[in-house]
């Protein structure tokens, strides 16, 4: 496994075949807490993304229509190999997992009414929630390099949690409400940081 140090040089897919098989393997592991698998494979093992890049790309993938991880795979494939790379990544995400899902769905019909099967699914749901939570905590450190700063990021995260988990607001309204505010503030801070310092008195 390569270092997860953000200063460690990033790697990249060798070719479209590498994209296909890498995302196939990722998709076949993605039972329940898929974000945990994606972060481990793309950031810690393959080093195709830094933690900061992963958070930024995942945020974009999350607001686009469609499954987050599929959007992310196409973004990475397109970034390295254009449209053919995006299609190779998409095929990797969907081809073999689709076959597995069809087989499992056929088998599950036979035991769908079983109390054991229902209990097992509920237990898997709890594990998936734990995986997602653990991944979130592991990625918090990347917010230290965010233009907003750690405090503002945590404030926006808390606001999003309160709006969705407690107030039950629709996700789209939360994104449209908090998203532009966070983007505008980050843009302001970046512009201020890039603004040249005032020159001293020339007299």
Describe this protein with a few key phrases.
203 residues, mainly alpha, 7 helices, globular
How would you describe this structure to a colleague?
With about 200 residues, the chain is mostly helical. It has seven helices and no strands. It has helices at about 15-30, 35-45, 50-65, 70-110, 115-140, 150-165, 170-195. Helix 2 (about 35-45) packs across helix 5 (about 115-140) and helix 3 packs across helix 4. The model is unreliable at about 1-5 (pLDDT under 50).
Radius of gyration: 20 Å
| Biggest beta-sheet profile | none
What is the helical fraction, as a range of percent? Answer: over 70%
Task: Classify the beta-strand content into a percent band.
Answer: under 5%
Uncertain runs are 1-6
> If you average the pLDDT, what whole number results?
81
Order of helices and strands: HHHHHHH
Q: How many strands in all?
A: 0
Tally of helical runs:
7
Alpha-carbon distance between the two ends:
59 Å
């Amino acid at each position: 496994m390569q270092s997860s140090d953000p200063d460690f040089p990033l790697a990249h897919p060798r070719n479209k075949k590498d994209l296909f098989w890498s995302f196939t393997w990722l998709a076949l592991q993605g039972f329940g807490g898929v974000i945990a698998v994606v972060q481990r494979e793309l950031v810690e093992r393959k080093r195709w993304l830094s933690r900061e890049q992963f958070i930024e790309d995942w945020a974009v993938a999350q607001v686009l229509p469609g499954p987050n991880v599929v959007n992310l795979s196409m973004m990475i494939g397109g970034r390295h190999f254009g449209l053919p790379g995006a299609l190779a990544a998409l095929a990797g995400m969907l081809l073999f997992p689709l076959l597995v899902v069809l087989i499992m769905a056929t088998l599950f019909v036979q035991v769908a009414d079983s109390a054991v099967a229902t209990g097992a699914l509920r237990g898997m749901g709890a594990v998936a929630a734990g995986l997602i939570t653990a991944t979130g905590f592991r990625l918090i450190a990347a917010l230290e390099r965010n233009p907003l700063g750690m405090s503002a990021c945590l404030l926006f995260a808390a606001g999003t949690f309160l709006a969705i988990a407690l107030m039950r607001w629709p996700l789209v309204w939360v994104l449209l409400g908090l998203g532009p505010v966070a983007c505008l503030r980050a843009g302001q801070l970046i512009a201020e940081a890039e603004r040249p310092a005032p020159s001293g008195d020339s007299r």
